[in-house]
Amino acid sequence: LFSSLLFSSLLFSSLLSLLCSRGGEAVNLTAEHKLTNPDERGRILSAGVWLNEGQTRISGIGVTRVLGDHFAKDTNSGMIGAPHISPPFLLGEEDTHVVLASDGVNSLSV
Predict the structure, then answer these.
(1) Which of 11, 18, 90, 99 is 20 to 30 Å apart from 25, CA to CA?
(2) What does the mean pLDDT of the chain come to?
(3) Is 106 or 32 the better-scoring residue by pLDDT?
(4) Residues 64, 84: contact at Cβ < 8 Å?
């Protein structure tokens, strides 16, 4: 019997992680850290940051979570350095592979 846990973590929006094929369907293991993601937009708004309708960048930065940009994190921009960590998935025999992609590949329709 095949059993293991798969954890997926995403710090920047340039990483896509998919688990294939759970019953013939891909399972998205990551969440985009962009203002176009309703959860991230809501988190920024809850932090007291005012956003324009359709705004996609904060201070010129296209992601909502940053690792080393202390200016962005120290200016009440709503940006944080904590990664999104997906829930663990129990892998089974029907799970054939994991796709990890970066640098704009995640902006393609999957």
Answers:
(1) 11
(2) 75
(3) 32
(4) no
Asked whether the whole model's pTM tops 0.85, one would answer no
Task: Tell me the average pLDDT across 61-67.
Answer: 82
Yes or no: say if 19 and 29 are a contact pair by the CB < 8 Å rule: yes
**In contact, 60 and 48? CB cutoff 8 Å:** no
For the residues of the chain, what is the DSSP string, one character each?
Answer: ----EE--EESSTTEEEEEEEETTEEEE-----STTSHHHHHHHHHTT----TT---BTTBS-SB-SS-HHHHHTT-S-B-PPEEPPPEE--TT--EEEEEETTGGGS--
